[in-house]
Write a structure and sequence with these properties.
Helices cover 37% and strands 16% of the residues. It contains 13 helices and 13 strands. A 7-stranded mixed sheet has the order 2-8-7-6-5-3-4, sandwiched between helices. The chain has a 4-stranded antiparallel sheet with strand order 9-10-13-12, covered by helices on one side. Strands 1-11 form a two-stranded parallel sheet. Bound molecules: pyridoxal-5'-phosphate (PLP).
């Protein structure tokens, strides 16, 4: 219709977080489809934020475009939460290692712009994985090279990845995206995958997306200073209960961070979101208090599903489970899964249909119990 629009965009659909028309009818549903924390911010913290909006924030002024104090708070959280941090000699991360995005989605886009735009590079992903890497790359005209994961444990086919790295030439692969633990399959990087990433040559950027770090407590942060071609992404949308405010951060070598900062829009985060992020980082101990409960619930739901004769559920290091449902002779196909998810939704639970299976976020104990009961009713 509009001749001035890039022709390659014509075939795309806008990203929809929920099936069309549903977004305005979510009240009362158990929302276990987007891997958020089931708990809202505690009311006293919301009140602090509301008071700060009235008393300290000026709506007519642009936000702090440098994110100075939030970067410092995040750096200090990153150091104090690093696995085995008590055995490290000194804090290794400071604000020069941090860039803050409007969700880590924005950082993914900035990384793609900084590395591959203009036919300079392609990206490598191992499917199934977080879809935004490929979606965002494609909207920027960046080629996406995919290799598969082995279904029994969803480990990356490293031989296939190596073959692609050496033979994909025009353009060459410049960025590898991995999630640790992966979404939607919830497996952490294996030792073999870690060894592979450690020897990726410095001409290739390795993005390690640790969106679910607080649930897995496994991180590559302690190795960052040995690998200047690594960048770690984190988000406040999951464990920190801040999905509505859209705050994510990247941790990397200061030179890499400087490049991301060049690309970032000057006021990419509102004053209110910056204040909310500062508040949750300051109160991280209190907010992360419910993580052990989510992990215990994960085990409880996993045990229940695992006992079901026609459900296959994979081990999880995150706040969600990935499962496939057995039909008469084979796993349910996408059409059957779509009907099942619709039926679950009609009964009050939203789950995510993905990669020929379903992904269920761990909710509150009551939500998980309802989800299990509904699932066994619709999948007898
Ligand atoms: C692996 C992974 N990375 C990044 C994101 C996006 O996070 P944000 O809300 O910070 O954009 C998600 C969201 O589901 C995710 O699963």
């Amino acid at each position: 219709m509009f001749p001035f629009i890039r022709s390659d965009l014509l075939q795309f659909q806008a990203y929809q977080s929920h099936p069309s028309g549903l977004s305005s009818h979510l009240d009362g549903l158990d929302r276990l489809d987007t891997n958020e924390n089931p708990l809202d911010l505690p009311v006293p913290l919301k009140q602090t934020l509301a008071r700060a909006y009235v008393e300290d924030m000026q709506a007519n002024r642009y936000p702090d475009g440098n994110h100075g104090s939030l970067k410092e708070a995040i750096a200090s959280y990153v150091n104090s939460s690093a696995p085995n941090h008590s055995t490290l000699n000194a804090s290794t991360i400071d604000s020069t290692h941090i860039s803050i995005g409007n969700g880590s989605d924005e950082l993914i886009r900035s990384i793609l712009i900084a590395t591959c735009l203009g036919q300079e590079g392609a990206i490598l992903v191992a499917n199934p994985t977080f879809s935004m890497y490929a979606i965002t790359a494609t909207t920027l005209g960046i080629p996406v090279v995919s290799v598969h994961r082995f279904e029994h444990d969803f480990a990356i086919d490293i031989a296939a990845a190596e073959a692609q790295l050496s033979c994909h030439q025009s353009p060459p692969i410049r960025v590898i995206f991995v999630v640790h633990p992966n979404s939607p399959t919830a497996n952490a990087l294996s030792l073999a995958e870690l060894q592979w990433l450690r020897q990726i040559p410095e001409e290739i950027l390795v993005v390690i997306d640790e969106a679910y770090f607080e649930f897995s407590q496994t991180s590559l942060i302690n190795e960052l200073d040995q690998h200047h071609n690594w960048i770690i992404l984190r988000t406040l949308s999951k464990a920190f209960r801040l999905a509505s405010h859209r705050v994510g951060y990247a941790i990397a070598h200061p030179e890499l961070i400087k490049t991301l900062e060049k690309i970032r829009l000057p006021y990419n985060l509102s004053t209110f979101s910056l204040a909310a992020a500062q508040l949750v980082i300051t109160h991280h101990q209190e907010l992360l208090d419910n993580i052990p409960e989510i992990i215990a619930e994960r085990k409880r739901l996993w045990d229940l599903l695992h006992c079901h004769p026609r459900i296959t559920v994979w081990p999880s290091h995150a706040n969600f489970l990935f499962l496939k449902l057995q039909g008469v002779n084979a796993y349910l196909n996408d059409q059957q899964l779509s009907i099942l998810c619709q039926t679950l939704r009609d009964r009050g639970t939203l789950v995510r249909q993905i990669n020929h299976g379903i992904r269920i976020t761990i909710g509150t104990a009551a939500e998980n119990q309802r989800t299990y009961s509904r699932l066994v009713l619709v999948h007898q």
